[in-house]
Design brief:
Layout lengths: L1 H20 L8 E14 L2 E9 L5 E5 L4 E6 L4 E10 L2 E4 L9 E6 L2 E12 L2 E12 L1
Antiparallel strand pairs: 1-2, 1-3, 1-9, 3-4, 4-5, 5-6, 6-7, 7-8, 8-9
């Protein structure tokens, strides 16, 4: 009986850990206004392209739900997209699961978060580093 009792609590602990690994960091849950999005391309260390978008209040939002999704609304509510979202520590995966998916690195700063994604590619012998940073605010 004692062994059964211990196994029961161990299985609950493992289940709770697995649930947490496949969910979203609770600090993300809720609606966030997009402040800016910066995309930068560097080829062999030199910036070759840079694009910065600044958003007006309510123009673009991210809403992270307890159902492990993110609802991205653009154009002041005209366009809406719901995608799966999962976090693991400071990593955030948005979109369909894929073993090669590059996560966003999350940085929490009071009522703001920064989502940073960096991908490295080689094209015609040149190393290209693509960086995307999205800044969100409550």
């Amino acid at each position: 009986m004692k062994t059964l009792f211990i196994l029961f609590f161990v299985s609950i602990g493992i289940h709770a850990y697995a649930q947490n690994k496949s969910g979203l960091d609770q600090r993300l849950i809720g609606k966030w206004k997009t402040i800016s999005k910066i995309e930068t391309d560097k080829t062999n260390g030199a910036v070759t392209e840079s694009d910065k978008e600044l958003y007006k209040a309510g123009e673009k939002t991210y809403e992270f739900t307890k159902k492990n999704t993110v609802i991205i609304t653009q154009g002041f509510g005209k366009h809406r997209e719901e995608l799966p979202a999962v976090s693991d520590g400071n990593k955030l995966f948005i979109g369909k699961p894929n073993k090669n998916k590059t996560p966003y690195l999350i940085t929490f700063q009071q009522n703001k978060i920064s989502l940073l994604k960096t991908e490295t590619k080689t094209k015609k012998g040149k190393t290209i580093v693509e960086t995307e940073e999205v800044l969100l605010q409550r």
